[in-house]
């Protein structure tokens, strides 16, 4: 059997293929970074206030329900949440996620007066599977769901819901916000 290849009939398109592959990978890296940023924002959005029996905030109780050491930090002002950003570099095919808020580092590592509330490392632990799903091209950010085996800041995933595919909140927090919950 003789195989004959006619290279003149098939022009080389390596550069074009390379461009398409790098664009696809870049889109996935960017999407994964933005998705992870949104998950971190949701993780630090649990309010640090006391609620009355009707689930409404009690005036003057801001800061009265701090997170326990090792949990995601609870929201007092929302400054950390607002300043968790993602940055994509097309040249390096990297996506960086973090914050420029100085106390973000103190929450992550702790201080001599406060035990750590490691929001970034907990986020990596809790959301690695979702990042991997996006990077592998098995679906976009909307295709990522938390499985019952995953955890969310110490809360079993069975008690966690997705709000518009981006922010995760506990069932109780969503009820307090007046969001109808299917039981």
Q: Could you give the distance between the termini? A: 66 Å
What is the residue-averaged pLDDT? 76
Total helical segments = 5
* Residues in β-strands, percent: 5-15%
Helix content: 25-40%
Globally, the shape reads: elongated
Count of distinct structural domains: 1
Number of strands: 6
**Main β-sheet, spatial strand arrangement:** 1-2
Unreliable segments (pLDDT under 50, ≥5 consecutive)? 145-169
Radius of gyration equals 22 Å
Biggest sheet descriptor: 2 strands, antiparallel
Q: Which sequence of SSEs, written as H and E, runs from N to C?
A: HHEEHHEEEEH
Structural class: alpha+beta
Protein model, in words:
This protein has 183 residues and is of the alpha+beta class. It has one domain (19-176). 36% of the residues lie in helices and 13% in strands. The protein is built from 5 helices and 6 strands; from the N terminus they run ααββααββββα. It has helices at 14-43, 79-82, 102-109, 119-135, 171-176, and strands at residues 84-89, 94-99, 151-152, 155-156, 160-163, 167-170. The strands form 3 sheets. A two-stranded antiparallel sheet has the order 1-2. α1 packs antiparallel against α4 (119-135). The longest helix has 30 residues, at 14-43.
